[in-house]
Amino acid sequence: MITTEHTSKQFDAELEAVRARVLQMGGLVENQIRLAVEALTSGDLDLMNRVVADDHRVNAMEVEIDETCGQIIARRQPAAGDLRMVMTVIKTITDLERIGDEAAKIARMAKLLAQRERLNLPRYNEIKHAADITLDMLRKSLDAFARLDLQTAAQVVRQDELVDEEFRAIMRYLITFMMEDPRTISTSLEILFVAKAIERIGDHAQNMSEYVIYMVKGRDVRHVTVEEIEREAASS
Amino acid sequence: MITTEHTSKQFDAELEAVRARVLQMGGLVENQIRLAVEALTSGDLDLMNRVVADDHRVNAMEVEIDETCGQIIARRQPAAGDLRMVMTVIKTITDLERIGDEAAKIARMAKLLAQRERLNLPRYNEIKHAADITLDMLRKSLDAFARLDLQTAAQVVRQDELVDEEFRAIMRYLITFMMEDPRTISTSLEILFVAKAIERIGDHAQNMSEYVIYMVKGRDVRHVTVEEIEREAASS
Asked: Which positions fall inside the PhoU domain (chains A, B) (predicted)?
């Protein structure tokens, strides 16, 4: 055993390293979404394959960070704020991994869509718009996590309502499209699944922001209203 | 401080209590799915409302068990198998909570569907069949968790392929249905979202079974093939 102070510095460094690793994982996942949507809109088959192939990198990071957290708990016996941080990391990486899955799903749907005849396909403007909002939410969630920023976290929770609204708009639009020309039904459903994947990315980003509020305030806000979360964030 | 042995017995009792609570939460969630599907097929509006209203009970259990796990980590400083058990619980309840969300989603879709004209609606046989498989998966996952049973856990992972196949069959069937009568498109999409919710329940049950394998074997099998998981389970 070295001195307590040294041990604590070491511990700080370990926590800092695991936080940095989460942000790296977040950056990778963010890139996967960006590339998946780019592949969808451009029809770039190589890019689609790359996104699907790279999903294992996201998975590997989840397993690795999870193990690190287990080691920290076993060796450092964190309490209070430190423990909340470790538990937040464990939960955050589960959501990041599932966002990675959704990005791979978008890339796989893009492959199916690229193989179809171009039956007056919609040009993905709405999809791109919804994806931009969720990318912004993901970035903000990671920022909120990095800087323990409650206001940003609360903004993300509010933004998720916007994504849900976008999803419903895309669905209404696709229904009209299918009714006008039933030959587009299969294609429209694939686009709908892309929209659903984007909506879920928004949900995961929202979860991540709620964990940040929990980490900072020690209060679990996963099942309260947006208004309460905003009050909680404002009272910091 | 009491004797180590007593402390350890106390600790065992705490772990046992938290495991029992997870199984209780699992039973509640299982019931929510069963009632949601019953409400869908029977058109029973009271039942639909009850499932939606009861979702908060699932959420409250998640928050409570999460807090208990945090306290156990902070006070008991679990290591090795005990720590893996606590981490498994933390992950399992996240999936159980999301299964609860999917059950509430099914109940909400059932409400929308009950309000529609009966335009030659399919009779939900396929939906019921897929739901029965996922209910079986959930029960087996909880059993595997309770009895640390690797073979059962491996079966669940294999069963998820069946659910995915059922989902694709329902989708093909709904596409035919929509093409034959475009007036059924909105209704069919709602049924498709019910099927999607059931498919996701299967995914969550699969996650839970993979955590059990991790807990028992100390090996993370979340991102390996079904064959590898079966080998892992057989080598116990």
From this structure: 23-109, 127-212
